[in-house]
TrEMBL record:
Entry annotated with the keyword Metal-binding: yes
Listed name of the protein: Coproporphyrin III ferrochelatase
Main subcellular location of this protein, as a coarse class: cytoplasm
Job of this protein: Involved in coproporphyrin-dependent heme b biosynthesis. Catalyzes the insertion of ferrous iron into coproporphyrin III to form Fe-coproporphyrin III.
Subcellular location: Cytoplasm
Pathway listed: Porphyrin-containing compound metabolism; protoheme biosynthesis
GO MF, any single term: ferrochelatase activity
Ligand binding (Fe(2+)): 198, 300
Organism expressing this protein natively: Corynebacterium argentoratense DSM 44202
Catalytic activity: Fe-coproporphyrin III + 2 H(+) = coproporphyrin III + Fe(2+)
Cited InterPro entries: Ferrochelatase, Ferrochelatase_C, Ferrochelatase_N
GO biological process: heme biosynthetic process
Amino acid sequence: MPEKHTIDPVDNHPFDGLLLLSFGGPEGHEDVRPFLENVTRGRGIPPERLDEVEEHYHHFGGVSPLNSLNREIIDHVEQELHTRGRDLPVFFGNRNWHPFAEDTVEQMVAAGHRRIAVFATSAWGGYSGCRQYHEDIARCMQHLEQRGLAEGVQMVKLRQFFDHPRYIDAMVDAVDEALAKVRAHGRGDRIRLVFTAHSIPLSADRSSGVDSDGALYSSQIRYASELVAQRCGFSPIDDAASAVGAHAADGFYDVVWQSRSGPEHVPWLDPDVVDHIAAIHGDVDAAVVCPIGFVSDHIEVVWDLDSELQQEAADFDIDIVRTRTAGPTADFAAMVVDLLEELECGAPVARVDSTRPGGASDVPGGVPALRGCRANGEPCAQGCCAPRKRPAAHGGARPGA
């Protein structure tokens, strides 16, 4: 059952603007290389890996699907606000490409907005998934201060939503749709459900969350995957000996990773999804691949899964059906507005807990260890998810500016 408790509103006044804050992506061939250099500055990504990823973007005309999908999310959020009788303007800003968040926030303030809610398009904790968005907000505020525009401005990040009922519902629906496609193909006897998320270095995962816990990012991914799998009738593969009833009949699920980009000698979260499909090909006829770690179709989804993984699976005669992502839907937009109203009026905080004995809810420290942030979007603890040392993302002039 969803956990319900009440939080204190930020203050007695509603927000007067909503910023959708995202990663960003190129929108033409000429944008690709400077965008990638901006994203990877100081991360030690080998040049040959940049060349490889650049070709992926050029394969799609130099255009990431992300920006257009984020604009779809904004359209749905505006419609949901209107349905609820709200006249709240929604703006779009990115960390790594136009429209840059600093420029968008300056425009918002110039238009008279002072209490700005920030919805970051990441469901997860950790440095890249959460803390870096707080750094983006701090950079926006510094930008305003440098221009004498910061007085009276408040920016508040909405909380992580990896276990929000609407997010879990959306992923359950997506998995069910994909399962129906697999069965329509006549490949429904041995189906594996495979959840994927972006891999990160093990050191980064260990530093995610508070010092006493760590591994916040990977724990949240596994937890959300379990919530979806339970609803769809799948059990963890390590429960094969004890699975009974519908779980045994419908199969098992795995959590794997994708899209690693660092030096080969640096250990990252594994196994990689392509390697995993190769390893299990003798045990399954089909796999439903759910990119639960991605709100929308990043280039990593449409290339790494829809191209590379499909090619690998074809070699082993495995039917791969990739689920849709949750982002550009009306239900997802309703979740965004729910999160907004949690802060404005102390609405109940909706979360889903695992019901499987011995499941993610029984990890050391319990589910609260997975929360990753306070209900008002603030970091879960002082100094949590400290970044690996590297230069600022926008050192000097912005590429392409």
